Amino acid sequence: MVIKKEIQYSGKAKTLYRTDDETKLIAEFRDSLTAFDGKKKGSLEHKGHYNAAISAHIFKLLEEEGVPTHFECMLSDTMMLVNAVDIIPVEVIVRNIAAGSITRKYPIKEGTPLVPPVIALDYKSDEYGDPMINEDIACVMGIAEREELAVMRKIALEVNKLLIEFLDSKGLLLPDFKLEFGRLNGKIVLADEISADTCRFWDKKTGKSLDKDVFRFDKGDVGRAYYEIAQRILPEI
Ligand code: UDP
Fold it and tell me: Which of the chain's ends, N or C, has fewer CB atoms near its CB within 10 Å?
């Protein structure tokens, strides 16, 4: 059993704790909800639990399919034990159906199928406002090697394929999602989380959002949406 130590970092929805094993961290999923770079704030009972459980379920599924992740195990409803990785400050966004920023920034209508999937990279930086970058810019900044970016892209496409198939069996569409990666013993692994905070999930029949868009755009009962997605994805909830 690991022992939880001091806070290493507290983000918008998760707190990372050091442990007595310096190769492991505890990620605590909190009930806080933020959108638009933290300008819109809220809180939702049980959200930490739902997001942690969805993330754990998906990480396990991906590991079984050979995708390396930082996930180790759940320690409680909201506490996830993960391998300490050197996070690469790049958000890899995979899009299958146009929604969100791509429909605001470009003349692409919401709902347009994106085949093959569109991959975009954002520089993860509050100071610079998470601008979109590409491989050349990431290399010039020295935040990732070209080979690492190629591996991230390959893993992102594989994750996309596996998630689309899994979610389809739950009656869900996956318009888009965001991944983060880290280095672990010289290898690129999936890190952070995969949840209703970082993915768009649409009901296949109705097109209804079952993700953070319900909070972002006041689309209805946020608690109900987070509960429904947890119920759809997780057998045990
Ligand atoms: N996303 C995320 N964190 C970010 C930016 C985006 O998890 O900092 C996710 C978001 O939930 C969505 C996808 O990445 O599933 C694409 O987001 P988009 O660029 O459309 O931004 P948004 O419209 O949410 O501002």
Answer: N
